[in-house]
Amino acid sequence: VQLQASGGGLVQAGGSLSLSCAASGRTFSGYDMGWFRQAPGKEREFVAAIIWNFGITYYADSVKGRFTISRDNAKNTVSLQMNSLKPDDTAVYYCAAARGVGSLRIGGNYDYWGQGTLVTVSS
Length: 123
Fold this sequence. Notes:
- By secondary structure, the protein is mainly beta.
- It has strands spanning about 1-5, 10, 15-25, 30-40, 45-50, 55-60, 65-70, 75-80, 90-100, 110-115, 115-120.
- The chain contains no helices and 11 strands.
- Strand 7 and strand 8 form a beta hairpin.
């Protein structure tokens, strides 16, 4: 599976951005999808994940209520709608695909990663 993330950019605090991740190479179905982020000087952290078939979602506490993850299996895409952005949300955002083994909150359980897209939130 090849993953291509897009949609990053510069936004003011309180604003919104929508990230998209397009999958290709293998069938998208069957892969749980997640978003992670890594801020400068910090470790990569879990943001959100969605189960491939039932659409069950998981969120980090820091983004719950502000971010929404969704997927379109017919279009092989997963999206992350980010609202009420804060400067602390500034990071490179990565999408990832997992075969469903282990917690989706742990990056090591993902099999494929996209190249990342930069989100910068100004104060």
